[in-house]
Amino acid sequence: MPTSSDTHGVTGQTVNYFCPFVKGADFQNENLIAHCGETVLCTVPDLICILEQETATPINTELLRYGFRVVVVGFPAPAQLTSAQALQVVGPQAFGYDMPYRPLALSHTARGKCSGQ
User: SS3 for 32-79, per residue?
Assistant: First the structure.
């Protein structure tokens, strides 16, 4: 797993169309993982976007700061990016995470695990 010096995280009041219980996101130069506590909801190559809660203005990772009120939304990756060969380059392991790709489509199964948090 990447060290705290090269991976950053954000927490806040977060919402996701597929799972309204997203509680954080890990990022380097892009958003890599959406999670609720220890439960991973989705990973790259799915697109994880962080928006300002009131205006829905996108917040780039370099502008993201602790305390922002945000909404997290996700978009499924195209099939070309989810092949075994592509995941070697764009999946979570390519960014140093010891976990498999977790498609956004599976996030609804994690909803019950996060609903109480």
Answer: EEEEECCEEEEECCCEEEEEECCCCCECCCCCCCCCCCEEEEEECCCH
Cα–chain-centroid distance for residue 17? 13
Identity (one letter) of the amino acid at 14? T
Q: How far apart are CA 84 and CA 8, in angstroms?
A: 26
In whole angstroms, what is the distance from residue 13 CA to residue 37 CA? 13
Express each pLDDT in 41-89 by its tens digit: 889 999 999 888 899 999 998 888 888 888 888 888 999 999 999 999 9
Q: What angle do CA 35, 40, 44 make, to 5 degrees?
A: 90
Parallel, antiparallel or unpaired: strands 8-11 and 24-27: antiparallel
Give the three-class secondary structure for 90: helix
Contact 27, 61 (CB under 8 A): yes
